[in-house]
Amino acid sequence: MTEIPFGRFFLPGPSDVHPDVIRAAVRPMIAHRGKAMDDIIANIAQPLKTLFRTQRPVIVGTCSATGFMEMAVRSGVRNRVLSLVGGAFAERFAHIAAACGREVVRLDVPYGKTVEPDMLRDAIKRSDVDAVSMVHSETSTGALAPLEELAKVVQEFDDIMLLVDTVSSMGGVPVETDQWKLDFVFTGSQKALAVPPGLALAAASPRMIERAKTIPERGAYLDMVTFHEAFSSGQPGPNTPAVSLFFQLEHQLGRIMAEGIDVRCARHKSLLEACERWVEAKGKELGLSYLPDPGRRSWTVSCLKLPEGVTSKSVTQPLAQQGWTIGTGYGKLKETTIRIGHMGEHTVGALEELLGLIERVLD
Ligand SMILES: *Cc1c(COP(=O)(O)O)cnc(C)c1O
Fold first, then answer.
1. How far is CA 307 from CA 77, 115, 141, 192, 282, in A?
2. Average pLDDT for 241-264
3. Which of 70, 71, 89 has most ligand 1 atoms within 8 Å of its beta carbon, as the pocket-test mutant?
4. What are the chain's domains?
């Protein structure tokens, strides 16, 4: 195979995939109910638990992360959900809940801000909800929610499921599924995990599984209970999974385990810090500033406001001509912000090289 480029693709999803992981897909097909697949499931089960910090089985589905967002709603919300919304992906979560016929109570904060514990407590008291939906790392704004603190607030109440989108945080920011008592935690393959797109992954608490069993219209194809039963008995889900992506997931989990979750998260934190240092030292002079507040910035994606009159395309296009990729803004922030996805396999060295190029483009 020809050489596979790597190290200059800073899109906030899909993220850059290591050449070895790209190559891991090149294998003959195997039966998805047979020894070779059994071996893969056995090989990934413990690394996935380590990644999610859970003792429970981690389920893997062949769909993008949004599929498991819908699973979270269908299997986790009985009647009414409180949706915390501060960006486009949280907006999608609320929309899906409504589209699945659930009543949605919204707690909105301006884009780039995060819901804080006191606000959440007040909102739950005011609204008789049986679930809360939220996004940990809001990839559209670069904001990182105080997940541990918010989870504590939810636990002050009885029988409210906490459904958490960790799509751009899992594998880059600490997520303590069991310790923080998160009921449903889901992610996708193509963000901080740095596997190609196409797989969704999740862990559910025992009470979430019990809840799901009491909801008759939880759907069929993405029924959490059948996924959970399949993976609990070493099966790769109820249907034919994307087998080649499982080859790649297996390989990448080996790499992630070799690096270590704590080291991997620390690397992501230093990527954020490198970007913050640069904004302070150079970016500010060029008119750039962070959208989220200090202490509420995701370790995996930096969303920077552009100076008046500069469009995101006028930054991303010259970079693309030099072989580097970053993201424009997302949704209503598309024109006025840029997003640097420093997630997955990136190093501080490569990020600093990129920031130097951005400096020249804006100068
Ligand atoms: C990318 C992303 C999604 C959607 O993931 P898909 O795999 O495109 O369905 C949802 N939430 C967040 C926070 C994301 O970053």
1. 42, 27, 17, 28, 13
2. 98
3. 89
4. 19-259 (3.40.640.10), 261-362 (3.90.1150.10)
